[in-house]
């Protein structure tokens, strides 16, 4: 049975599936990976080995983070070249749009308060060892207190930071420090049950720095609004969202029913039809582009949602993935449902789908990602700016106003945000989906 | 063979019921319809259109036959496009493999806080090609960029600059795939190698890499296919310039979507198809023999 | 060949103590079995000898050398892993040869410095190992083409080829089917007799321990419960845990009190158990004890002082197992042959006082 078919219990992690026989390991031992590199050497060499490993990790991480770092700086700086020969990096000169937490309209205030509350609750929950699905540990008065006071602290101090920053006051760094300190204190209350004692302190400080920085920048900087307005992101994001929804639903449904036919029904020429499905993987959009565009022209679908959705309404990749999942359903379960009088549709929706939920979830997220990130096809069938999706809107923004780097970058980051959230929320599913073809079993 | 055995065999032969076939058809038709309409029919159309030369107003088709295939596939324009795509592949694929291995090997350890690094390494997955291109445009732009270099405007370095953005973006995917491969190598095999006196480098080269070779091959195929299909990066970063030095094959195909060049475009598309097919097939055949499956 | 000594060794994983102050001396050339249930720390202890786990506290010695910080490859030990850990992409020959390629050996004598082996020496050792373990025809195959038993022998050959000071084995038989397991047990004992190297062998199967070991070290929750020869741990278990872990079916244990009325005996309700001779005078009237008697030592006798309510009888041909209870506590009796005992009836049992074990009800330690 493939390791990704859940039968009412938590699915085995890749580590467990690969570990095979149960090991005589005490609970609480660290997870898998190599430690032999540092075992069995003198403590001096061991420390050197550890330092070396961390150094390598930091170097590699900076390869990833440096472009992002510069990008963020650019987003928050005025749109002029700021790397002048001989001069150090400009301090980030941010244009702030609010002076206090309650500025900016009711909707904005509600959203920012909720987002901060959610973020703090998530952090507290994570530290308590709970998951989003089991929020019980959050109900303790200590943690609730931390979340509530945290939100209040942010609301008060963020406004001060914005105001002081806008006035270019020298007190600004102190307001930052105060904000971080007070927020850390409130969060420490929630973490205080952890041992050893340095853990809650470190966690509180890290969480506080992260939340403060993100909140101040995300909700106060004017550049996000500017990027949104100048780039007219609203309709584009809406369109992207709509077609992503339609494409994802269509792909999931057609893949599920097709996979069901291949996995559970008997009909002639099954192998041939399956090959017919799989062969489409050899015909990517890049190859069939011209002919498909011509088809769209003939149907008069240029600039329509139909053109963006229908060509992607079905996919062989999804069919393959879900068929694999269905094959993992024990045949006895199928037989039992037939004895109980369930027909094909009943079995499908009540048993087959729930039992292969992890695979279907993986595929759904991957399909959504793919749909949101599409570039070539929307670009080919949309020639009216009013009907652009978010990705190709970026090209227009860059094209029209290239010197306004911060606006263009802000727009790009806004477009990247939904995917980032999806990645954070569903990282396990995404990873499983991506590696499905790579690792056997 | 026993009577019981014979009876069992007879019962196992699938008997089709009209009802089941009807249901199967109903379930498969939506997918099949999409595939026929947007995959097979277009491809056949392409093959056919490749034999036509068309005029400016698109209304006039002149049948020229297979001559057009021969002409266009050997034209300097096509070969240039192919070469640029190949250049892109040569820049992005080895780098992608090496970086993937480095990142995964570095992060497959029991160290404090390793999960943070794993999250950072996989984070480039969150960026779409368009967003990555915007990021790198403003990093490398000669006037408003962070590093005001002329990489994007110099025909000799433009393709490399475009590749940089994809190398960065592919890091997340490469990391995740190679890490999954590493996690499938049993710890005990690595421990046996340690006991045998293999140092970390030797372990990596002699034990780890051979054992994850199926995963590496999968990644290779994925990266090559991505590489041959490069479009958005070129569109945003250079628009095909300078002097057409970054016009990949797909970029050219996209430009040929106009009604008066659709015949030529079709030829290019068919060419792309067979090239991708050939490359993938060659990869499978050559490397399949050298792949060692861990079992 | 060398001894392996644990001196007050502790291993801690974050908050969990896997091995707690272990004091154990494995003699040179001894076959020592570390026995215990899952999670008792036996594998961790083994891995510490190999150097695959660090030592939090205490000293570990191989021979006379403290090896706490010595590289695993320099400790001159070899290990057979539970999953065999063969290199799937190498032939059997390369697998066996693998430890000889990089490590240095005292090939010229124990006093001469260690060096890399020459090709001739490697080939010679590989051939020897293949011969000893019957792998001659399989040298060119890859592990995937071998059966479970063959793979295990390759793992043994790979361990053997380095002529280590100690063999470490982590449940090597658990992946084999029952018949092969019994056969391989004999082969392993044979091999040890021939090679005379120290073996530290981890298992949760007490049959393996009893049949193969010179001495058994029983662990539970990281602590050493008892170390002794199979005979010692069988006849004189140091505490209740050992008493109930060794022996199939396990020793019967009941709560009772020492009484002197009508002669010294352990009173369990209406039944009376005889008291071992050396304890007769050492117990106090009314003292609570846990009394244990193995199923094979309980005999059915009309003159018995133990009343046993029979619930079921399993006749196995050469013996039968009588399941029932004494004063509500489950008791199993083993009788030779197919004794015609009534299910649902009552029988009387007797036991030799030498085969009665008494344990302190609070500390569960043996009363002696």
Q: What is this structure, in a nutshell?
A:
The complex is a heterotrimer of chains A (441), B (295) and C (368). With 441 residues, chain A is mainly α.
Name the poorly predicted regions of chain C.
none
> Order of SSEs of chain B, N→C?
HHEEHHHHHHHHHHH
Largest sheet of chain C: 6 strands, mixed
Molecular shape of chain B: globular
Strand count, sense and barrel status of the largest sheet of chain B are: 2 strands, antiparallel
CATH class of chain B: Mainly Alpha
CATH architecture of the largest domain in chain C: 3-Layer(aba) Sandwich
SS class of chain C: alpha+beta
Query: What is the multimeric organization of the chains shown?
Result: heterotrimer
CATH class division of the largest domain in chain C: Alpha Beta
CATH second-level architecture of chain B: Orthogonal Bundle
The Rg value of chain C, from CA coordinates, equals 25 Å
Number of domains of chain B: 1
Trace the largest sheet of chain C across and list its strands: 6-7-8-3-9-10
Name the helix and strand elements of chain C from N-terminus to C-terminus, one letter apiece.
EEEHEEEHHHEHEHEEHHEEEEEEEEEE
What fraction of residues of chain C sit in β-strands?
25-35%
CATH homologous superfamily title of chain B: MetI-like
Low-confidence stretches of chain B: none
Helical stretch count of chain B? 13
Mean pLDDT of chain C: 91
* Chain pair with largest interface: A-B, 99 and 105 residues
